[in-house]
Amino acid sequence: MYLFIFICYAVLLGIMLLIPSVFSRAVTALLVTAALLVSLGGYWILNLFGWLPGVMLMLAAVTLVSLLVSWFLAGRERNEEGESA
Fold first, then answer.
1. Which of 37, 46, 70, 74 could staple 54 via S-S, CB 3.0–4.6 A?
2. Are 45 and 57 within 8 A, CB to CB?
3. Are 34 and 65 in contact (CB under 8 A)?
């Protein structure tokens, strides 16, 4: 199953880098890599603990990743506004 997750990561990364995006290529690669880590962690937790703790920890991980990305992008936006003013 881990091999399947890595193959899906490679396909998703290739597709996401080919299509136009509002994010830079580095941020897109970072987001896809974060999705890989969350998927690997979720599958590992699902095998270790069962579905309820797995779902709860996956929701917590996705919430944490989305908060970190929003803080990162908000900081970059403030820096770009400060440089252009």
1. 46
2. yes
3. yes
